[in-house]
Design goal:
Oligomer: single chain
CATH class of the largest domain: Alpha Beta
Helix content: 25-40%
Number of helices: 10
CATH architecture of the largest domain: 3-Layer(aba) Sandwich
Order of helices and strands: HHHHEEHEHEHEEHHEHEE
Strand order of the largest sheet: 5-4-3-6-7-9-8
Number of domains: 2
C-alpha cells in the first residue's frame, strides 16, 4: 500500500482488500470494510454511500494503523472494539473473550427453557463481556439476572454492554470465583455458563490471534479442560430451584463426561441431554434438578 497519493474511499478499500488477501487473510474485503468504517467512525453500510469521498491523510493513516494491527494478529473485534452476537453489537477488548457463534446456541437453548415468564432469577457464571446475560435480558423482557466473573476487568466490560443495551437495571454483577460472591441461600431458575474448557496443554496450539491476545483466565480449563466445570456442577445443583436448569458450554469430546457429572450431582437423568452446534460438535450440556 503506497504512501504518497490522494485516496478515494473505494480505491483505498480495494487496495487494502488485495493487500490483506495477499497476506492470507480470509474475508479480506469484509475485514477491510470493518476496519475502514471504524477508522472513519461510520457504519459499515455507510461506506457504500461514500465511495467517491476523498480521504484526508489522517483518515488514511488511521486506517493503515488498524491494518497493521490486524496483520500482527490482533483480532478484528479488538481492533474495532465491537463484536456481533445474536441481536447485539457488544463492546470488547483484550479484557474479555471475543464472543463465539457457538455460545449463541447456549443462549437460544436457555431462552427455550425460560419462556416468557421465568420462574426465578437467572445466573450467568463467568460472564466475561456479558454476551450471555445481556442477550437473555434483551430477548426476555421479564428476566432478572445475576452475573459473576473472577475478573474485575471483565465485569467492567460487561457493565458497559448492559448499559449500552439498556438492561443494566435488570442485571446485578458480582466479582468473585463462580458462585462464591453470592449468598449461600441464593436460588435460581436457570444457571448458565461458558466456562474455560480448553486443556492447558492445548493453549500453545491455539491460533495465534486467540493464544496471544485473548485472556487465558477465560480459556484455560486445566489438565483436561474440565477443572472449572467439575467445581461448578455441584455448586449449581445446590443453588438451583426445584426443576431448575443448568446449561454449560463445553468443548469437543467433553459432553459425555459433563453429562455424567450432572447425573452424579443429583440432576434428573431424564432431563440431561446435549445440543450440538451448527458444525455438529456436542456443545451445550443441560439438565434439571428434580422437581418437588
Amino acid at each position: 500500500m503506497s504512501d504518497e497519493r490522494t485516496w478515494k474511499l473505494l480505491e483505498l478499500l480495494r487496495e487494502a482488500t488485495q493487500f490483506l488477501s495477499s497476506k492470507g487473510l480470509e474475508s479480506s474485503r469484509l475485514e477491510a470494510e470493518w476496519m475502514l468504517s471504524s477508522a472513519l467512525d461510520i457504519r459499515r453500510i455507510d461506506l457504500y454511500l461514500q465511495f467517491e469521498k476523498v480521504l484526508t491523510g489522517t483518515e488514511v493513516e488511521s486506517f493503515r494503523s488498524l491494518v497493521r494491527q490486524r496483520l500482527a494478529g490482533r483480532p478484528l473485534q479488538y481492533i474495532t472494539g465491537d463484536a456481533g452476537f445474536r441481536l447485539l453489537d457488544l463492546t470488547v477488548d483484550e479484557r474479555v473473550l471475543v464472543p463465539r457463534p457457538e455460545t449463541e446456541i447456549l443462549v437460544e437453548e436457555a431462552l427455550t427453557h425460560l419462556g416468557e415468564q421465568p420462574a426465578g432469577q437467572i445466573l450467568d457464571v463467568g460472564c466475561g463481556s456479558g454476551a450471555i446475560a445481556v442477550s437473555v435480558a434483551r430477548e426476555c423482557e421479564a428476566a432478572r439476572l445475576v452475573a459473576t466473573d473472577l475478573s474485575r476487568a471483565a465485569i467492567a466490560v460487561a457493565r458497559v454492554n448492559a448499559e449500552r443495551h439498556s438492561v443494566a437495571e435488570r442485571i446485578r454483577f458480582f466479582c468473585g470465583d463462580l458462585l462464591a460472591p453470592l449468598a449461600t441461600d441464593a436460588r435460581f431458575a436457570v444457571i448458565l455458563s461458558n466456562p474455560p474448557y480448553i486443556a492447558s496443554t492445548d493453549i500453545p496450539t491455539l491460533q495465534p490471534e486467540i493464544r496471544d491476545h485473548e485472556p487465558h483466565l477465560a480459556l484455560d480449563g486445566g489438565a483436561d479442560g474440565l477443572d472449572v466445570v467439575r467445581r461448578l456442577v455441584p455448586l449449581a445443583a445446590r443453588h438451583l430451584l426445584p426443576a431448575g436448569r443448568l446449561l454449560i458450554e463445553v468443548g469437543a469430546g467433553q459432553s459425555d463426561v459433563v453429562e455424567s457429572l450432572l447425573e452424579d450431582s443429583g440432576f434428573d437423568a431424564s432431563t440431561i441431554y446435549t445440543r450440538a452446534d451448527l458444525t455438529g460438535i456436542p456443545r451445550v450440556v443441560t439438565g434439571a434438578t428434580p422437581g418437588r
